[in-house]
Amino acid sequence: MRHLTLQEQTSMILDGWHIIDKLYEEYAKSLGLTYIGLSVLNAIYGMPENCTQKAICERTHLPKQSVNGIIRSLWEQGYVKMKETDSDRRNKIIRFSKSGRDYADRTIGRLLKKEEKVVAQLTYRERQIMIGFLEKTGNSIEECIQAGQSGRKVLKEV
Q1: Is the domain of 61 the same as that of 110?
Q2: How do residues 73-88 score in pLDDT, each as one tens digit?
Q3: Which of 58, 66, 127, 142 gets the highest tally of CB atoms within 10 A of its CB?
């Protein structure tokens, strides 16, 4: 069996990520959502107590404008309520309404159960390796992009 080249391995890794993203996009579409909408809904679901637009942006890595548009849409549909924080009236705590919680349970809750089932098929060691791989890869890509933006040499031989 021949060894794959670095270029072939890179392509396979990135293809895998894109396939997973596409699957989430398709799931979102089946619910009448966009991928971004699904991501925001998931973030609110995961932060039931102290969910703010800023926290959603930090968790999803999405721009404030995109998050704001999704939150506004969820609010208009009656799925979320917003309450000003005591410390800064410009910041609002975002919480599901009763109908929003039911909707999120049917969509995000179902998705989370499926994700857990998939991840449970991996051994503990495999999950730890994957976590390390994702952290290392994400950090390295961030460093390369930042270096490219500052004009420094972007890639170096390993």
Answers
A1: yes
A2: 999 999 999 988 777 7
A3: 66
